[in-house]
Specification:
The protein is elongated, with a radius of gyration of 26 Å. The chain folds into two domains: 288 residues, DNA ligase/mRNA capping enzyme (D-amino Acid Aminotransferase, Chain A, domain 1, 2-Layer Sandwich); 136 residues, no CATH class. Strand 13 and strand 14 form a beta hairpin. The chain is built from 15 helices and 14 strands. By secondary structure, the chain is of the alpha+beta class. Helices cover 36% and strands 18% of the residues. Strands 1, 7, 8, 9, 10, 11 and 12 form a seven-stranded mixed beta sheet that branches. It has a four-stranded antiparallel beta sheet with strand order 2-3-4-5, with no helix packed on it.
């Protein structure tokens, strides 16, 4: 049984006494067997470079013994911080301007997996395996989100437990004991395993056909902390070779630079297909740092999933009438969601403008932007640009000897004014185009 680990790994010191209440939330969670301490950093007020705090994204300790049992990947760092750290630790950084991702011994590049994070760890106090989520232990609960405010909501009542979905991913009865899984008999008990769970009944953005677990991290658990284990090691373990289809690994990707990643996202978006890569995760195996390059198109879809069409329609109607300031003074609870909708609206305007520039300025005629954008690109050209050009030509002929007149161009402001004239119901249809396509793709054939 080959469970080889690297001789030197990044180590995370975990100490129940080294944190402050204003930075890290601490709660005691009870299961039918034992008590656990769960630590999560507080998103409000934490500094981006406070790495000692940010490593407590989700850490689980025994209670009252206060010994570490499981640990999730710390909060990812920005690309700029990641690149700076890599150049600092590189043996021969040279004069590189942009970080080279391909064929690097220290960098592991793979697709970013959406889903629910699940801890799997062994508790020596009970001699049994246990699962946990970011803020709880046992999995005998659901995530309700905003539905929790409505106890009569049928969708809330139908949400499955995380434990049930975890067992169904192993093709086991949800009422079975987790310790009866044959898979666990050969799994090293001195390590914790972090999965991303995908389940058809817990869809986030992308359509899910069957329950599956993606193993994204393994940590060696010790008395005072945990050690990072590279995917290059644990993905080769024999035990996982027989679990294909149940336990998967994120697909490894090859890109030369960050610019190539962004081009890949752009190509995927303009292709009009239903296959979307949520992002690219890059791990520095020398330091254990993780950075995630998110797909902007995926972020738009995720935002649309959270926004209710009725609220979007309200926003668009108020925008058509001249603004929502008076409405938000009476109903301030809608400020945050209106801000999210406005941000989505402005991102859409920026994208249409970029598509127009690509088509009519850079003359990239071979790119198919799909019906969501193509019809508006042509309408903007006919209704805005061509009339401006005719007026420009006439003025230029009359003022041939005077100072030359600046050639007109289509700006984001003009495109914003174009869409502000669209009926709210039609604009709602346009903004939710991608979500509608994703929902159609998830329907059974």
């Amino acid at each position: 049984m080959d469970h080889s680990v690297p001789p030197i790994s990044p180590f995370y010191v975990l100490d129940m006494h080294s944190w402050t209440k204003d930075k890290i939330r601490h709660k005691i969670v009870a299961t039918t067997k034992r008590l656990y301490s769960v630590l999560n950093y507080n998103k409000l007020g934490v500094c981006f470079n406070d790495f000692n705090t940010l490593k407590y994204r989700s850490a689980i300790f025994s209670f009252p013994e206060k010994l570490p049992l499981s640990f999730s990947p710390p909060k990812s760092v920005s690309w700029e911080s990641f690149q700076q750290s890599y150049m600092y630790h590189a043996r021969d950084p040279g004069d590189q301007v942009e970080l080279i991702l391909k064929n690097s011994a220290e960098l592991h590049v793979n697709e970013y997996i959406e889903g629910v994070m699940i801890h799997l760890f062994y508790d020596p106090r009970t001699s049994s395996w246990e699962i946990a989520t970011k803020g709880g232990v046992g999995g005998k609960y659901s995530y309700y989100g905003n539905l929790s405010k409505d106890p009569m909501n049928s969708e809330k009542r139908s949400r499955p437990y995380f434990y049930d979905m975890f067992m169904e991913a192993f093709r086991e009865n949800k009422s079975a004991d987790i310790n009866t899984l044959p898979f666990l008999e050969s799994l090293p008990k001195h390590m914790c395993y972090i999965f991303m769970l995908q389940h058809p009944r817990n869809k986030i953005v992308l359509p899910i056909k069957r329950p599956v677990l993606y193993l994204i991290r393994v940590y060696y658990v010790m008395k005072h902390g945990v050690a990072f284990i590279s995917p290059k090691y644990y993905e080769q373990w024999y035990i996982f070779r027989n679990m294909k289809g149940i336990v998967e690994f994120p697909k490894q990707l090859e890109f030369e630079t960050k610019t190539d990643v962004e081009s890949f996202f752009q190509t995927e978006t303009t292709s009009g297909g239903n296959c979307i890569t949520p992002g690219v995760a890059i791990t520095n195996e020398f330091t254990g740092e993780l950075t995630i390059l998110k797909n902007p198109h995926y972020d738009v879809l995720k935002t649309q999933q959270k926004l209710k069409p009725l609220t979007q329609y309200q926003y668009l109607c108020h925008r058509r009438m001249g603004g929502s300031d008076n409405y938000l003074q009476l109903f301030p609870q809608y400020k945050r969601v209106f801000f999210s909708i406005e941000n989505e609206y402005m991102n859409f305007i920026k994208h249409v403008h970029q598509c127009y520039i690509n088509t009519h300025v850079f003359q990239r005629m071979g790119v198919d932007y799909g019906p969501k954008y193509a019809v508006h690109i042509q309408n903007i050209h006919k209704e805005l640009y061509l009339p401006m050009m005719r007026a420009f030509s006439q003025k230029n002929r009359r003022n041939a000897t005077a100072n030359p007149i600046r050639r007109p161009k289509v700006t984001q402001v003009m495109i914003l004014q174009y869409f502000d004239r669209v009926e709210p119901r039609e604009m709602l249809y346009i903004l939710n185009w991608d979500t509608r396509e994703q929902n159609y793709a998830s329907l059974p054939a």
